[in-house]
Amino acid sequence: MAWLVHEGTVLATLERADSVRSRTVGLLGRESFDGALLLEKTRSVHTVGMKFPIDVAFLDDEMRVLKIVTLSKHRMTRLEWRASCAIETEAGRFSHWNVQPGDMLEIRGDLEPADDT
What we know:
By secondary structure, the protein is mostly beta strands.
């Protein structure tokens, strides 16, 4: 199991979407989501077909937060060219966690692929 960490504090459990299929599926089909989902090699996300709004943090290669956006259902972000990955979680979580652009995030533990079936 892996955890998303900010300034030494565990924020949430973390799943990984590292294949094209798992990145395409993302959080689709879920009623809610208590953790965070790391979308590798991602510069844009959508919420078409989603059942709840999400927060998206775009990160660079060093896990520095470049931008955070909140997406309601059936929306799409612009391309974030400098991003190497994105982290999705339920809307309001990054604000609750006090994570802002410029902050460094960390992954601890064994990062396992998300269930994309």
